[in-house]
Amino acid sequence: MKHFSPKLILGVLLMGALSLNCQAQNVNSFFDKETTTAAEDGGNGYCICFKSKGGTNAADNQANYKLTTHLIAGKKYMLKVTAKATSNCQLTLHAVDTKSDNKNADGTSADVQEFNPKSIGTTWETYNWRFTAKYPIDRLDFLFGTLDGKIYFDDVKLSDTEFGVDVIQNG
């Protein structure tokens, strides 16, 4: 498998079946070009794959998605993600208001919603998080820090539950 930069991968994925629906510059990760790849998903095209070297807590390895339009505090949303990993792991979602003046000692935003982790298996499954935004969320963090292996994401969709409008737009 060839390795690509995350920006290139997302450009390729947007042309394929991945419904991450983002502009390539909006996705960042704590990974470099050697650990982020585009991979065939065995079904509808390509997915994104992150290699994780394992860690002691969920935040040790993560992928971050910067929203082009912030989520509105008080509105209800649903995030759907189809995922699998090379070994069973936990995937935690954090929704972050990075522009908040409420900061932690290290300067990061203290306005973070943490959602119950999902147990990710070795076969493709769809996982859902339903939530009401507590803050004007502008970044989603996917944490899988204890995984020693690969995690694959495909068919990511974020929509408001009132009108069913996709929040993440095609770029």
| Element string (H = helix, E = strand) | HEEEEEEEEEEE
Question: Biggest sheet, open or closed, and with what strands and sense?
Answer: 6 strands, antiparallel
Low-confidence stretches: 1-36
Mean pLDDT: 77
Shape: globular
The helix fraction, in percent, is under 10%
- Tell me the span between the first and last alpha carbons: 26 Å
Helical segment tally? Answer: 1
The fraction of residues in strands falls at 35-45%
Which structural class do you get from the secondary structure elements? mainly beta
Assembly category: single chain
Q: Please report the total strand number as a whole number.
A: 11
Rounded to an integer in angstroms, the radius of gyration calculated over CA atoms is 15 Å
Q: What is this entry, summarized?
A:
The chain has 1 helix and 11 strands; from the N terminus they run αβββββββββββ. The protein is mainly beta.
Would you give an account of this structure?
The protein has one helix at residues 6-15; strands at residues 27-29, 36-40, 46-53, 62-66, 76-85, 89-96, 112-114, 118-120, 125-132, 139-143, 148-160. It has 171 residues and is mostly beta strands. The strands form 2 sheets. Strands 1, 4, 6, 7, 8 and 10 form a 6-stranded antiparallel sheet that branches. Strands 2-3-11-5-9 form a 5-stranded antiparallel sheet, with helices on one face. β2 and β3 (46-53) form a beta hairpin. The radius of gyration is 15 Å and the shape is globular.
